[in-house]
Amino acid sequence: MFPSRRKTAQLPWEDGRATAVNLMTCEEDKHGHRSRLIPSGLPRKCSVFHLFVACLLLGFLSLLWLQLSCSGDVARAARGQGQETPGPSRACPPEPPPEHWEEDESWGPHRLAVLVPFRERFEELLVFVPHMHRFLSRKKIQHHIYVLNQVDHFSLGALHRFNRAALINAGFLESSNSTDYIAMHDVDLLPLNEELDYGFPETGPFHVASPELHPLYHYKTYVGGILLLSKQHYQLCNGMSNRFWGWGREDDEFYRRIKGAGLQLFRPSGITTGYKTFRHLHDPAWRKRDQKRIAAQKQEQFRVDREGGLSTVKYRVDSRTALSVGGAPCTVLNIMLDCDKAATPWCTFS
């Protein structure tokens, strides 16, 4: 992983002058009989015990390297020296939370539903679920991850476009009654700073991925990426508008809903990691965003939807599957969204 930091391991008995190629050589007595095998290039005093100890040492060092690699300690050390660490980080086995959260008071009384709108981004999901489960478990936050998978289907020969807001509305309604607040969470945004607060947002919506910290979006009214709300406050806003098919703008409309509901928006303070607070997994070179604006959609995207939302979302859950991704539990909901082409003719690709 870090070729510039690697160097060949030298065993304790090597003097740097051995050039033997054969792995083993034989000693012969004066009559030509072979008596015993010894490693080529090693002093004759080297015993099997020494070899055994050396193997144990090498095995321990290998396990230590693997653990540091997956935990991110090596990556953080490399970044601290100005080195880049190519490729996605490896997922370590997650630290399981207690079997019964309610019996451990240190985990707190609230439970978070992580709602992840999703479609065909499997590489990101394989990193996201274990990372978030470990991150929230270390913070002792009761949680469950819901992957809201929009099922592809054709309507009159046209493919339905992605609708992040409608998926979140559906996920809200399908999430367990044992959860009392939600995280609207992008699958390609991973929190790195342990100081980020994912606790219960009692006083108002809490925008974790604030403009001062998000690696890409820095305008003041931005509330996308990661937003925490109590279920009561989400219902007060009537959820999100279902009219936003394609990528973008649903967050901007939801900001106006928050203000219209009289809620105060909160953001992190005291975070000093700036734009390195999160890791952004999205690669625009090979995963294009659907940014088309069709017909009246250009004008509609700036209008507040005062009628639709959580109370009007139409969908069907095709299946509900409990999965373990890298040892981290989650529930995948295959959701088929309904589109009223009379109201939103831009919901499909012809």
TrEMBL record:
Keywords: Glycoprotein, Glycosyltransferase, Golgi apparatus, Manganese, Membrane, Metal-binding, Signal-anchor, Transferase, Transmembrane, Transmembrane helix. It is a single-pass type II membrane protein. GO terms for biological process: carbohydrate metabolic process; glycosaminoglycan biosynthetic process; proteoglycan biosynthetic process. GO terms for molecular function: metal ion binding; xylosylprotein 4-beta-galactosyltransferase activity. Gene3D superfamilies: Spore Coat Polysaccharide Biosynthesis Protein SpsA, Chain A. Residues 205-280 form the Galactosyltransferase C-terminal domain. Residues 100-198 form the Galactosyltransferase N-terminal domain. It is an enzyme of class 2 (transferase). The keyword Manganese applies. Residues 79-105 are annotated as: Disordered. It catalyses: 3-O-(beta-D-xylosyl)-L-seryl-[protein] + UDP-alpha-D-galactose = 3-O-(beta-D-galactosyl-(1->4)-beta-D-xylosyl)-L-seryl-[protein] + UDP + H(+). It is found in: Golgi apparatus membrane. GO terms for cellular component: Golgi cisterna membrane; Golgi membrane. Pathway: Protein modification; protein glycosylation. The keyword Amino-acid biosynthesis does not apply. Its main location: Golgi. Its cofactor is Mn(2+). Responsible for the synthesis of complex-type N-linked oligosaccharides in many glycoproteins as well as the carbohydrate moieties of glycolipids. Required for the biosynthesis of the tetrasaccharide linkage region of proteoglycans, especially for small proteoglycans in skin fibroblasts. Belongs to the glycosyltransferase 7 family. This is Beta-1,4-galactosyltransferase. It comes from Tursiops truncatus (Atlantic bottle-nosed dolphin). The lineage of its organism: Eukaryota, Metazoa, Chordata, Craniata, Vertebrata.
